[in-house]
Amino acid sequence: MSIEIILQVIMIIIAISMIKTENNLNLIILFSAFSLIAAGLYFMYNSPDVALSEISIGSAIIPLIFIIAISKQKEFVVINHLKDDFLKDNENEIAGRGYEILKNFCNHYDLKLKIIDSKESHIHGIFREKNIDLIIDKCSYTNNYILKGKESSILMNKLEQMTKDIDNIIIIKEGENETVD
């Protein structure tokens, strides 16, 4: 068996591992290894210029950008507009069904949950001054809880997947210009 075939099989295994992993750091390491192997294959197929580009961009720059982006996302900031027991405050301790959902979500992604009561400070839109990730509101007609967040956020897609089977929770993903708090 030639080295090219072995490297291609290893790339397939790494690609499958990348799809299955849930840890962001492991994903970055696998991505970098995939890129290095691809660069080796480019070199073996007489494309040294493409191999050099793949090493510099795919194995170094892109993983560095991912690490920087992930390190910036340390907390999940939520604005609470509710006055009921979904995010109930028990003697300076937050509890309730909504808190449990958000806490499990944040624990899964190693984020610190920060809940800001809407009357605590003046807020300029969902994506403005405080870099808010989520706004929680309640529809007065249906009594559904509305969780609004950025349409471009991967976390919002994950939160939507986690809450799809929970009754009376609606996820709304908004673009940057559509926000109203």
From TrEMBL:
Predominantly, its location class is membrane
Compartments where located: Cell membrane
User: Acyltransferase among the record's keywords?
Assistant: no
Tell me which domain of life the UniProt entry assigns to the organism this sequence originates from.
Bacteria
Asked if the record carries the keyword Cytoplasm, the reply is no
Parts of the chain that traverse the membrane: 25-45, 51-70
Entry GO CC: plasma membrane
In what way does this protein cross or attach to the membrane? Multi-pass membrane protein
Q: Which UniProt keywords apply?
A: Cell membrane, Membrane, Transmembrane, Transmembrane helix
The MrpA C-terminal/MbhD domain extends over 9-74
What name appears for this protein in its UniProt entry? Answer: DUF4040 domain-containing protein
Q: Source species, please?
A: Oceanirhabdus seepicola
